[in-house]
Amino acid sequence: MPYLWFKAFHLIGIVVWFAGLFYIGRLFVYHAEASLESEPAQGILKKQYQIMEKRLYGIITTPGMWVTVIMAGGMLTIEPELLKSSWLHIKLFFVLLLIGYHHFCKRLMTQLANGTCTWSGQNFRAFNEAPTLLLVVIVLLVVFKGTLPLSWTTGLILALIISMAAAIQLYAKKRRKDQEKLLDNI
Predict the structure, then answer these.
(1) pTM of the full structure
(2) pLDDT tens digit string along 134-147?
(3) Residue 153 within any structural domain of the chain
């Protein structure tokens, strides 16, 4: 029974963690694009995004990560034979990448707050897709365990990457056209 409690809170932690990671990337987009505004809007927006990022990271995203990791540790303590599974080793590798992404977000927050970040909104849009890809890989590893069809999975991941890159480029093109129309009407 304790294993199921650990598992339940592990899943809750994952949902909270990913909600935070998905939203913080979006805030980074808005924060970077606030630089395109004139004053006083620019200063007001940047200050507000900085507050939102800090609260999201500290109150939601980081606790979600810790709940996820601690509950996983509890599951592995109760069922240590899981550590013999090769799929779990691969999953843990991707979880480590996700933890690295999480901490890199903190670094980007600091750079944005200090005004030293050189990334554009479009760079952040691409960056924001990384947790989606990691989520897909991790969930597939857990669901399929040792039977994950690598050829299908590789194709799926490549298709996702191409789709995401195309969507980001199409959105950037649409924004440029909208901006041109706006300038033409002035």
Answers:
(1) 0.84
(2) 998 899 889 888 77
(3) no
